[in-house]
Amino acid sequence: MTLYIDPPTWPGHGRLWSHLVSDVSYAELHAFAESLGVPRRAFERDHYDLPAHRYTDAVSAGALEVSSREVVRLLHGAGLRRRKGAFRGAPGAQPRSS
Description:
Layout: E1 3-5, E2 10-12, E3 15-22, H1 26-36, E4 43-44, E5 47-51, H2 55-60, E6 64-65, H3 68-78
Parallel strand pairs: 1-6
Antiparallel strand pairs: 1-3, 2-3, 3-5, 4-5
């Protein structure tokens, strides 16, 4: 199981955030996040958003530190990249909640 995390450089809600991804499957990603106690609501399309204070936890649990550019490359290479709005209306797509 190999998961990847970029540095916490993404601002939002008064914090800095990292992206946690898998290059194998969403199931692997969800299992890893669950083992860290990361709530499912932190999952966004193809990655989990982790606040800066959880970065070390993810790395200690085995996530490999990579650049943000590498995160995107890994997702594309694995066919797991989901662009915003790209899968709406696709078979099996989840409806957006309001």
